[in-house]
What does this fold into?
Amino acid sequence: MKTRYAMPPMWSWQEFLDMAQRPETIDGAGRQDDRTEFAGADWDEALRLAVDGWQVPLEQADVTVGTLRERAGIGTAVTTLEPTWDVTGSEVDMALYLAGVPECMIDAVPTQTSRRGRVVTFVVPASYESNTEHHAIINRGLALATLCTAIIEAGHGVEIWSEKAVMLGRDDDERERFVALARVISPGEPFDVGRLIFAMAHPAMLRRIWFAVTDGLDAGLAQLIHDSLYGYGPRDCYAEDLPEEITEPYLFPYLEPGDTQWDSLDSALDWCRRMFAELGLIH
It folds into this structure.
């Protein structure tokens, strides 16, 4: 889909927060919105959580990332059967036997292995319908953060982008696409799980921080975004939205109204576990 408006990528979390703290160029901006319940936090609290990280949902659920990983059935190591050769065993290696090699018997020995070294890029849509309930946002985000943590513990590098991709304009026939990207986690940097949880799971990530980023753009564009209620669907993200040096990213689907896999934390973990397993990242 053709993109009419695109912000330069924000390559670091600090750059993203700096953009969010610029003065608004329009009146009635989202940072000033007094619907704290809708946003999940007022502006000051949202900014504090963005800087310090969000641990509240884990504390409220009385769980840790480790216990979430157990509930998702995730291990950092994989058990595989590796063949070994000796003078005794359960099968004959006929080629060695005919060659007169004494160690011609084969046994399968369980071995703990881990697929390491791969850098995986994820793109998570930041936008969703205004009537999306907090529990869906939180459950999806906690599940994604848990699985990403498991991947890092298994030895992979992870790069995570948050993307705001929406349509602007009130006339269906004249709407144009807007895209903005912020890198939440960079490969190789110290891993901040609290930051990841806030970025993936807190409603204020979109409804305070991302809104504040767009409220500080050129006044004409900021007003168009605001008048478009911060964007309409479709909210699909595409690989070509990313900087050209990033190849083969995994694009998460955005939160659809009526999605049921996010109704509980366990169902969200199960959905994400199956999806990550299909990618070959966990077993």
In short: The longest helix spans residues 134-153. DSSP finds eleven helices and eight strands in the chain. Residues 163 and 187 are 17 Å apart (CA to CA). Strands lie at 3-6, 78-86, 91-92, 105-113, 119-125, 157-168, 176-185, 250-251.
